[in-house]
Amino acid sequence: HLALLLLPNAVRSFGVRTPNCIQLVVQQQQRHTHHIHHLLAADNDDDETDTSTSKQPATTGDALRAATGIRPSLHPVTINALAEALKLRAQNREDWPLRPRANVEPLQIALSAGRIATEAIQKRQAASDEDGMKLQAKEEQTVAGRVVGVVMRLDDLEATLVTRCEAAPWIAKYGEWATFGLMGNAEVEASLSDVEDRIRDDPLFRLSRAECLLALFLATVEQPSLERSDESVPGGSTVDFLDADRKEVLLGL
What we know:
- The chain is mainly α.
- The chain has twelve helices and no strands.
- The chain has helices at about 1-10, 20-50, 65-70, 75-90, 105-125, 135-150, 155-165, 170-175, 185-190, 190-200, 205-230, 245-250.
- The longest helix has 29 residues, at about 20-50.
- It starts with a helix and ends with a helix.
- Mean pLDDT is about 80; it is low at about 10-60.
């Protein structure tokens, strides 16, 4: 259910293409979102009552972050979710449609991406029970929007990744393709079965690919979209998770 709650915000974010079928689901879901959030708020109120006789928990979290208002980065949970999406896509599982096919609708891919984002967020929230750094609602929406945005554009982003890496001769010269989550140039990457095997079996390779795809998405899709609409997202869109060499190749920085 959380995946459906996040989907309306996710498919609107950062120019995600929304076919009519997705727009219909969004419109239907928006009519129920307010009521569901009201119920969730009521549950929270119930949880917070009658605590006077119970032992209050000790203060948790990072005191420095709490004092300064600095929020934790959203990039790690997003990158982990994208790495999981790449793994599931490489497994070609029918219950996780993530690759456009004749019998796979864009809505199915968007819902799969929403499920992946939901599970990643839930794990992140569970891990934050003791550190006091749970994601806020807008942060959850930002993570979900990025995961859905990247997954819906995987083919295009991967093609851009290959093109930009091919334009840097030192990558081929020194065999540094894997640093970018690639097996080689466009011809090598065209061998889909070999690429999928590597993505499934090599977690570091998969993670590197996820990082590069997210960086390209932030730079070429999210930032321009936010600038056009004069909006912002929690934590901003700065790519601060790549080393200098990868930034130079992918972003020209």
